[in-house]
Amino acid sequence: MEHDFKGKTVLVTGAGWGVGAAVALLFASYGAKVIVADTSEKGGKNLAGKIRGQNGEATFIRIDVSSPSECDKLIKRTIETYGSIDIACNNSAIFTERAHSLYKDINAVGNEMSLDVNSLFYCMKYEVEAMQKQGAGVIINMAFEVGANGLTSFDPSIAVKYGIDESTQNIPAEFSVGGIRVIAITQDIINKALLQGIRLTKRGMLLKLSAMARVAKMEKVASLVVWLSSDKTTFLLPSDKSSVVSWACAQN
Predict the structure, then answer these.
(1) Are 151 and 206 in contact (CB under 8 A)?
(2) Tell me, what DSSP letter sits at residue 9?
(3) Separation between Cα atoms, residue 220 and residue 225, nearest integer Å
């Protein structure tokens, strides 16, 4: 399905690699001006350079989304750079050692919680404020479907990212969102990120918990984000209510 995002500004956090990079690349291919936000200068600059190399428009901004002041600056720089913030994809997450939270270092768990939970609030606070001034906007929050299947003991980031569903449903009442669509995509198991560094035996366990018993492709994740951000879904997902979209995209 073809889309046209010319003249639109898209902010993607955690865009230096994985799903975030795939989302940023696809938006750029449809003419959007993309802010590539990530903690990694190498990954972020490489991705922005790749987009420009394909005749797209992209700017890298290094950001620590666990800091409210940095999130505020990120939104302001986005608007200063391209004049608006039309779409925001909140994708940042931390994946650390794969073990039950009780066995982890306290600081490690605290860092995950700070990034995966607090950062969503910080980003959305300033995104919503900016979009309210514009009178419109789309916010996509990336969560994990597998959090509902007992995988919370596998990695706390899954548990807190799964909690994004509830946070998203409560946002309109909290912020009196008007003209802004807020959507959470509860991802299935993807062929990057979560599966990296996991032993084959555990991969088999993860696939059994997957909605389709197969691994999702990042490119299909990106396609869903782009479609949900388009004008084609304004009737399906009205601006006066938030939405949680559960899905599974198989490789084949």
Answers:
(1) yes
(2) E
(3) 9
Q: How many domains does the chain have?
A: 1
Confirm whether 1 is domain-assigned.
no
Residue 143 has which token pair? 């969560």
Share the mean pLDDT of the chain: 75
pTM (predicted TM-score): 0.77
Q: Which of 55-69, 137-151, 169-183, 198-212 has the lowest mean pLDDT?
A: 198-212
Q: What CATH number is associated with residue 70? A: 3.40.50.720
Which helix or strand (DSSP H or E) is residue 168 part of? helix 164-175
**What residue numbers bound the domain in which 56 lies?**
9-246
DSSP state of 13: E
Residue 165 lies in a domain: yes
What is the enclosing helix (H) or strand (E) of 119?
A: helix 119-134
Q: Which of 233, 250, 249 is nearest to 241 (CA)?
A: 233
Please indicate, yes or no, if residue 251 is contained in any of the structural domains: no
Q: 216 vs 168, which has greater pLDDT?
A: 216
Structural domain includes residue 67: yes
Which structure tokens are listed for 63? 């950001």
φ, ψ for residue 126, nearest 5 deg: -80, -30
